[in-house]
Amino acid sequence: MSQPVEATGPQPFPQDWTSLLVLVPHPDDPEYGIAAAVAKWTAAGKTVRYALASSGEVGIAGLEPGQAGPLREDEQRRAAAIVGVSDVDFWGFPDSNIRNTPELRAKIAAVIGEVRPDVVVTIYGGAEFGPGMPNQRDHMEFAAAVTDAWDAVADKPSWLFQGGPGPTHVEAVDGYLDTAVDSLAAHEVYLSVLDPTTPVREQAGRVVDMTTPAQAGHRVAGFRLQRSTVA
């Protein structure tokens, strides 16, 4: 039976897999931390799919949800394509009101059963990214729902990770940082409204620099192992 996993320090991200499913609550969530790793994996021939609980429809100030949702879906598809992901699904759960409900857990479990990935990567579920940097409730609720759903499925993937601080595993992403910047910068309207005074590509570069720190001479993307069926 699989158990929660505790690791003593960062290890290399597993390599012996072919398919990975990224589960997140909003558009742009994949680009905040893991896009460089995704670009590396798809370049190596691995299959990566994205599934998003919401369309981020309340995430752009000044735009009605009916306008913002389709726009953010389009930006997410462009961002995904830049890192080699063509399969992007939106589930229609309400942005800013995502909760760890039976309905959400059932959807997550159904998609895991349908896709049958070797690896699942989801959003960071801790209360803070760092001192004075609180996490969003949508993120925490969604991450908890993914873990609960993973525990409930009979045919489990080999690994469940959260992206985020305090990694147990890291993927060296040297050579893929510019691609990660391009991917986040594809959320052009979202970022331009989020910070109108800073050029979009500059914003994207800052995020990639922050989320891919240097370790042992390499820039790395970090992941927190939550569950594993691998001995």
TrEMBL record:
Keyword Phosphoprotein: no
This protein's UniProt keywords: Zinc
Pfam families: PIG-L
Keyword Zinc: yes
InterPro entries with a match to the protein in the record: GlcNAc_PI_deacetylase-related (IPR003737), LmbE-like_dom_sf (IPR024078)
Top-level taxon of the source organism: Bacteria
Protein's recorded name: GlcNAc-PI de-N-acetylase
